[in-house]
Amino acid sequence: MSEETKQPAEETPEEPQEAPQEEAPPAEEKVPDEKAEKAARGKKKKEKTYTLTREQMEAAELAARQLESVKDQFVRLTAEYDNYRKRTLKEKMDLVQTGGRDVLLEMLPVRDDVQRAVDAMQKSDDLEALRAGVTLISQKFTEALRRKGVTEIEVLDKEFDADFSEAVARIAAGDEKKGKVIDVVQTGYMLGEKVLRFAKVVVGE
C-alpha cells in the first residue's frame, strides 16, 4: 500500500453550549385591596351630581332669605337688649343717688335744730326750755322719716312676733305677760311694708 499522506481532518469548531436558564418565579397573584375598593366606590358616589328642580331651587332661595331675616332680627334684638340693660342700670344708679340726696335734704333741718339746741345748752340753764327743744327736734325728725316712708314698729305689750322683732332677753313676767314684749331695747322701723330694722326686745316668760 502506498502510503498516502494523510491530511489532518479539519476539526469543526464546537458550538458553545448555552448556559441553562433559570426558570422565572411564577408571578404573584394580586389580592384585591378591600379598603382601596371602598374608597374608589365612595369617590364615585361623591362625584355624582344632583340636578335640582326649579321648585327646589326656589325653596332653597326662600330658606336662605328667611335665614338672613332671622339673623338680622337677632342682631337687632341683641342690640336693643344691650341698650335697655345699660339704660336701666343708669336709671337705678340715678335713683339711688337721688334717693340718698332727698333723704339728706330732709335730715339737714333736723341737724340745724340739733346744733341750735347745743348752742342753747351752752348759754342757758333753763332745763324746761332745753327739754321742750329736744322734744321738738325728736318730733321733727320722726316726721321727716315718715315722709320718706319710714315708720316705727310698735311692739310694746304685744305678742312677740319674730317677723318684726328680735328677742335679746327673756325674763319671768307672770302669766299675763308670758310671750309678750315687756321692754324695747332698740326701736325697730319699717320702710313701706318691709322691715328696715328689727326691734330688739325683752320677752316675758
Sum up the structure in keywords.
205 residues, alpha+beta, three-stranded antiparallel β-sheet, 6 strands, elongated, disordered N terminus
Q: Work out the helicity level.
A: 40-55%
Q: Shape from CA axes?
A: elongated
- Output the structural class: alpha+beta
Record field, number of beta strands: 6
Q: Major beta sheet, specifics?
A: 3 strands, antiparallel
End-to-end separation: 180 Å
Count the DSSP helices: 4
What Rg, in angstroms, do the CA atoms define? 56 Å
- Classify the beta-strand content into a percent band: 15-25%
Q: Low-confidence parts lasting 5 or more residues at pLDDT below 50?
A: 1-10
Q: Can you list the strand order of the major beta sheet?
A: 1-4-5
Report the mean per-residue pLDDT as an integer.
Answer: 80
Order of helices and strands: HHHEEHEEEE
Structure description:
The chain is of the alpha+beta class. 53% of the residues lie in helices and 15% in strands. It has helices at residues 34-46, 54-123, 127-147, 174-177; strands at 150-153, 165-171, 181-186, 188-191, 194-197, 199-204. The strands form two sheets. It has a three-stranded antiparallel beta sheet with strand order 1-4-5. A three-stranded mixed beta sheet has the order 2-6-3, with no helix packed on it. Strand 4 (188-191) and strand 5 (194-197) form a beta hairpin. The longest helix has 70 residues, at 54-123. The N and C termini lie far apart (180 Å).
